């Protein structure tokens, strides 16, 4: 478990959009060894919703457009995956 001071000192240097983007990239890289497009699709949809629902007051507006793009790409990945 990480101490809260470490997390707080990390988040002070970046805005919430950048931190969410880092978590999205790390979770996508973590899901790659599973070789499942369905899991990547679900991951993309979830982070699309997170980016879309993040208030613009604490993140820049271009993260909203990233969320919309992820919500378009995510279902395509999910449907193209094998059962």
TrEMBL record:
Going by the UniProt record, its keywords in alphabetical order are:
Membrane, Transmembrane, Transmembrane helix
Report the residue ranges that make up the DUF8006 domain in this protein: 1-82
Is Membrane there in the keyword field?
A: yes
Q: Does the keyword Hydrolase apply?
A: no
Q: Which InterPro entries does the UniProt record give? A: DUF8006
- TM region positions: 12-32, 39-58, 64-81
Listed name of the protein = DUF8006 domain-containing protein
């Amino acid at each position: 478990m990480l101490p809260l001071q470490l997390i707080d000192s990390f988040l002070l240097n970046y805005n919430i959009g950048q931190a969410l983007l880092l978590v999205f990239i790390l979770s996508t890289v973590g899901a790659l060894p599973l070789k499942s497009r369905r899991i990547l699709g679900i991951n993309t949809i979830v982070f699309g919703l997170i980016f879309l629902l993040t208030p613009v007051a604490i993140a820049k507006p271009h993260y909203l457009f990233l969320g919309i793009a992820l919500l378009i790409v995510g279902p395509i990945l999910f449907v193209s995956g094998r059962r």
